[in-house]
Amino acid sequence: MKVAILASGNGSNFEALAQQFQAGLLAAELAFVFSDHHDAYVLERAKRLKVPFYSFEVKEFANKQAYEEALLALLEKEQIDLIVLAGYMRIIGKTLLAKFSNRIINIHPSLLPSFPGLHGIKDAFDYGVKVTGVTVHVVDDGVDTGPIIAQEPVMISPMDTLATLEEKIHQVEHRLYPNVLRKIINEKNQ
Ligand code: GRF
Q1: Pair 70, 95: CB distance under 8 Å
Q2: Is this structure's pTM higher than 0.90?
Q3: Which atom of ligand 1 is nearest the CA belonging to 42?
Q4: Superfamily (CATH H level) for 2-189
C-alpha cells in the first residue's frame, strides 16, 4: 500500500509520520510528500529525512482545475492508495475527491464540529472553551466536515496562552495521527 502526504507549510505532522514510516512502524510505503508551495518548510524536512518530494503551485496553471488534474496525474502515476493531508491549506476539489473517495484523511486542531476552518486553535482559545482537542476525519466535499475517525481532547487551563495551547495541540497531533494511520493501514492490509 502506498501513501502520499500533502502539506502546505511547516510540516511537523509530516515529520512525525515520516519518522514512523522510516522506523518500520507503519506497514505501508510513504511514496512522497507534495506541497503547493515551493518554499514550504515541509520540503526542507523532506530533504533532511530523504523522503521524495514534489511541489507545484496553482499559479503555474491556467486554473485550480488544471492544478488539481496535475496533482491527480502525479498521484495516479505513483499508484497512491491513500492521501494523508497534513496542513494542506487547499480545499480538495471534485476531481480528486471522485477518484479518492474515502481515501483522503485530514487532521484538524479542534474537536470538530466545533471550530472548523483555518484557525481552529486560536478560535477555541478566544472563545474560552475549557476543552478543545484534535480530530482526524475522512475528507468530503465540505470544509472539515467529513466522517470523524478519531478525536482526543486537550484541556485548556487558566495558565495557558495561545502559544502553550498550540504546543499541547501539536504534541497530541504528532501522537494521534500516526496511531490513526496505523489502524487504517492495518485494516486495509488485512
Ligand atoms: C496542524 O495543526 C493541523 O492540524 C492543521 O494544520 C497544522 C499543520 O501543522 N491541519 P504542521 O505543518 O504539520 O506543523
Answers
A1: no
A2: yes
A3: 12
A4: Formyl transferase, N-terminal domain (3.40.50.170)
pLDDT in tens, 66-98: 999 999 999 999 999 999 999 999 999 999 999
Q: Which atom of ligand 1 is nearest to the CA of 106?
A: 10
Q: How confident is the model at residue 190 (pLDDT cuts 50, 70, 90)?
A: confident
Question: Phi/psi at 175 (nearest 5 deg)?
Answer: -90, -45
Q: Is 119 a catalytic residue?
A: no
**Pocket flag, ligand 1, residue 168 (CB < 6 Å):** no
Task: Dig out the grid coordinates for 118 from the structure.
Answer: 483555518
Report the length, in residues, of the chain: 190
pLDDT digits (tens, 9 = 90+) for 52-62: 999 999 999 99
Interval between CA 158 and ligand 1 midpoint (Å): 24
